[in-house]
Amino acid sequence: MADNIPDKILDAKEGRFPTTLEGIKQFYDEWAPTYEKLTRHGFKNIDGVDISTESLKICKEGGLYRRLICDRIGTNKLDINDDSYDGLILCGALLKGHLNLGCFPELIRIVKPGGPIIFSVSSNSKDTFDKFKDGKFESDLQELVCKGLWVKEANELIPDWIFNRPGHQYVYKVV
Ligand SMILES: C[S@@+](CC[C@H](N)C(=O)[O-])C[C@H]1O[C@@H](n2cnc3c(N)ncnc32)[C@H](O)[C@@H]1O
To answer: pTM here?
Structure first.
């Protein structure tokens, strides 16, 4: 590991994320050169979206991704056609100051009917952060079920989700 990783990992581990979108962008721009170990699992046609230009540059060097899109994931429309993907994974995205739950309708739009949307969140985040706590996370997800946009497939507790701490992994299927 490069020398500059431990501070960033410690910050992330302790939940010390910047609170503004610009701060989040800068945080990951600085971490990007040492962040990713690319690993191949046989998937093809993988696209990625992130607001951190430096993270995307590193992704590009790895040659794994077909298309890399620098944009905010939120309620804004992404430059991606409807029903483009067989499935979608949000990885390390539902954190303090990161994605808000309002992003899901836009993510549902770009996944084909029947395709899975997979995401996870730490138990600590669910208990602590305003956007998740007091059952808000579950009720926001359920609201999209009631609207007929997706159906729930799984909600699994992962005891060692990250840093020896628990988290929940969710799978919803686009209708
Ligand atoms: C913990 S890292 C996870 C990176 C990568 N997805 C992974 O799992 O290795 C969080 C990522 O979310 C990105 N990010 C934070 N808020 C975002 C937003 N609203 N839209 C798009 N990307 C965002 C950051 O730039 C950062 O690369």
So the answer is: 0.82
**Ligand 1 centroid from CA 173, angstroms:** 22
Our answer on whether the CB atom of 70 is closer than 6 Å to any ligand 1 atom is: no
52 plus 31 within the same structural domain: yes
Domain span holding position 53: 1-71
Which atom in ligand 1 lies closest to the alpha carbon of residue 74? 19
CA of 144 to the centre of ligand 1 (A): 23
Tens of pLDDT, residue by residue over 71-130, are 999 999 999 999 999 999 999 999 888 999 999 999 999 999 999 999 999 998 888 888
Report which of 172, 145, 169, 165 is spatially closest to residue 155, judged by C-alpha positions.
Answer: 169
State pLDDT tens for residues 32-75: 876 654 744 556 788 999 999 999 999 898 777 889 999 999 99
Phi, psi of 11 (to 5 degrees): -60, -45
Same domain, 49 and 112: no
- How remote is the CA of residue 63 from the centroid of ligand 1, in Å? 19
